[in-house]
Design goal:
Distance between the termini: 45 Å
Helix content: over 70%
Order of helices and strands: HHHHH
Number of domains: 1
Number of helices: 5
Largest sheet: none
Radius of gyration: 20 Å
Strand content: under 5%
Low-confidence stretches: none
Mean pLDDT: 85
């Protein structure tokens, strides 16, 4: 695809990697893994209760409450839309595949932006 439009393919790749980096840098459900190990090794009910409360707190503060995840998601979807536009112009993928990608990633990006704006309205 870089032969079709090298600059746009490079820009979309940079956007996707920047977005992915931001999303992976935010606290996610991966934080539950050490808690699960500690819960399995706990010897008292009090410690199990504390670890269960910590797990519930992690689940309540989901990934999409952080600015990094929201910005990362928007960058990721923008990069994906751009690469689908390159797919549309090139001949390596079918037009239906490219259009499906454009629509899918645009709707996902709109979902992230709409969820963000609804969450912070008074």
């Amino acid at each position: 695809m870089r032969r079709t439009n090298r600059a746009q393919a490079l820009l979309s790749t940079v956007l996707v990697f920047a977005g992915l980096t931001l999303v992976l840098a935010t606290p996610t459900a991966l934080s539950l893994i050490p808690l699960s190990d500690k819960y399995a090794a706990a010897t008292s009910d009090a410690l199990r209760t504390q670890l269960l409360a910590a797990g519930e707190a992690l689940m309540a503060a989901d990934i999409w409450h952080g600015t990094g995840a929201i910005l990362g998601g928007v960058l990721l979807q923008c990069g994906a839309v751009l690469i689908c536009v390159v797919m549309l112009r090139g001949g390596a993928f079918g037009k239906a595949t490219a259009w499906l990608g454009i629509v899918m990633h645009a709707l996902d990006g709109a979902h992230i932006v709409a969820g963000f704006s609804c969450r912070y309205q008074a």
